[in-house]
What we know:
Radius of gyration: 22 Å
Number of helices: 16
Largest sheet: 2 strands, antiparallel
Order of helices and strands: HHHEEHHHHHHHHHHHHH
Strand order of the largest sheet: 1-2
Helix content: 55-70%
Mean pLDDT: 85
Distance between the termini: 71 Å
Shape: globular
Number of strands: 2
Structural class: mainly alpha
Amino acid sequence: MMDEKYYFDKLDTLHNELNNYIFPVSRDCGACINCCINISESHLFIPLYIDYINYNRGDEHSSVKTWEDGIEIPLCPYIDLTDKKCAIYKWRPLACRLYPMMLERSENSMYYRCVFYDLYEKDYSDLESLLPAGYKNKINRIVREISKLNIQYLKEFDRRRIEDYKKIYENPVPKKERLLNALCIYREALNKHSQSICLQTQIAKIYMELKDYKSALNMLENILETDKKECIAKILKAKIYLILNRTSDSISEIKEVIKINKSITQAYYMLGVLCLLDEKYEESSEAFQLLVNINPLARYRYKDLIKFIGLCNH
C-alpha cells in the first residue's frame, strides 16, 4: 500500500512538467485577485489537493480540511484580501496553475483589468494559439493525469466515499441556496475589508441574480462613488437597466464605458445590441463595425454578431 507522500510527490512532478508548458504565456497577475474572489464553479478543492495543501502547510494552518468543506466555496479562503497574496501559492490547485488558459473557456471571460487582456486583444489571437505547437495537447494530458491521480488517491485512502463524492457533483446545491450562502460569506468578508471593490462587485452580481435590482444598483453606486471609472460596475448597471426596460440609460452607461476604455470589446457588442433593440440601426451597425475592427475574432467569439449586423443593414 502506497502512502500519501507517493501521491503528493507524483503531483509535484506533474506540476513541474505543467509549468514548462504554461510558461510561454505566463505573466505576473499584479494586484488583481478577481480570479480568487469568485471560485464557486472552479472545483478547486478536490480531495487530493485538500490533503496535499494540508500536508505541506500543516493542518493547524488549514482553511479547508475535507472535500465537503471545499465544495461551493465562493471566496478562496487562502487569499489575503489586504495584501492580495496567496497563502498557498506553492501548493495551489490545478485550476490556479492553468491560468491563463482557463480564461479561454467562454465568450467574455477575460477580465478587463487582467494583464492578459491587452495581449489577447491586440494580438487578435487566442491565448492558446500563442503556445508552441503541441503544448496544448501536453497540457490536456497532464490535466487528465491529475484527475486520474485524484480518483486513485480516493480509491486507496477513502474508497467508500467515492460514490458520495460523485453524487455531490451530480447533484449540486440549488442555485438560490448557493447564492444566499455566497452572499453571507461576501458580506462577512466586506465587513473586514470595506473598501474592496472586488467584494462589492460580487455582492452586486449576486443581488442581480436574485433579482434584487435595487440592492444591486445601490452596491454599484457605492463602487462608483469610490471610482467613477470602474467599468465592470458600469457594465453591470447597464445590464440591470436593460432588464428594467431602461434601454436609454443602459446605452448611456455603455457609452461611458467606451469613453473610459476603448479596448473593452464587450462594451461595443453590448452597445450594438442595445441600439438594435432601440431601433437605432445606424448606431448599432457602427458599434458592431468598431468591434470587428478592434478584434476580427469577435465574429467567432460573439456567436450572434453576423446575424445582428445583418439586421442592422435591412
